[in-house]
Amino acid sequence: MYYNKYVFPILGGGNLNISVGDRLQMKKQHPCGCNTFTVLRVGMDFKLRCDGCSHEVMLPRVKAEKNIKKIISKNGEENV
Asked: Average pLDDT per run of 10 along the chain, which is 80 residues long?
């Protein structure tokens, strides 16, 4: 049976505690050269704002969680 990767997230994947206002360090850079983003919206999709050029992008949750390298919460704590 075929399963869509966006409907059925990666099996056994942990839940990441990401909330609005957190900063994310991603594995890949944005075309402007910055690899940190601020979370504007959380749900089935993530709305992220690039910290370098303020461009806003929307990504499916599965793709965003896969590309996160580090979570920097609002109060400055770092989670890997």
From this structure: 50 70 94 95 94 95 93 74
